[in-house]
């Protein structure tokens, strides 16, 4: 028993070391990823439930590590959030999305607003407002075609300063939505103090919509209260017609999920829009 205990311990430390060195490798290759142009943007439709047509495209970051393997954001965004890389990379995301939007317009496609994720770290960065201004100027994009998604938790972290920054973004003509709603501990009544137009219900509440009466009640309540506060609602992670039907019946205006489309590369987007 003693011997196997030691083996377990060795195994445990070995696994820990492996995890630590993998993390280290990931972090050091991430540092050079931007210079090597390994980041790409994918786009996922947000559907208008009244027409089942595309209303907005959410912009989602991907990392083409070493030029081949496609890495998903949950593998690298938390690391960049921790070491601060998310600030320059997030700025690149904004710029690239705006350039892409202008490019699509020039090619003659109907304008579709883009929703860009803003991380908590970016949101609190002093240079944020200035960098948004430069991007608007340099790309010439109509700010009405841009929307920022900010998580509920990020909004709750910084009190009065939050209100100030959101106000500045809002005055530039960029719309704001609250991401991952329901995962934090805020109330819609409180969030209504912010100049926000849209609430995105987190996938966690949508997943078991058909099976769980409790989740149905929560989602119905969020939609009803949002609508009474003149906020529109997007449901994330819609994968089935059953979920979609329940959401529509409860007055949810927008839906996003694999039922409609996975996130796709830029060259595949316009085939969806048409
Ligand atoms: P999020 O903002 O909640 O984005 C929605 C995520 O749900 C995306 O994952 C999307 O692919 C996934 N999703 C959409 N529909 C479905 C569905 O029907 N079923 C399931 N199972 N998943 C669905 P993705 O692209 O892996 O992104 C994960 C998270 O990474 C995002 O969550 C967001 O928090 C973060 N992220 C992605 N791109 C960026 C970025 O450019 N900047 C920042 N700061 N964060 C980003
Ligand atoms: Ca989002
Ligand atoms: Ca979300
Ligand atoms: Ca989410």
TrEMBL record:
All copies of domain EAL, residue ranges: 23-274
Tree of life domain: Bacteria
Descriptive protein name: EAL domain-containing protein
Coverage span on the entire protein: 686 to 959 of 959
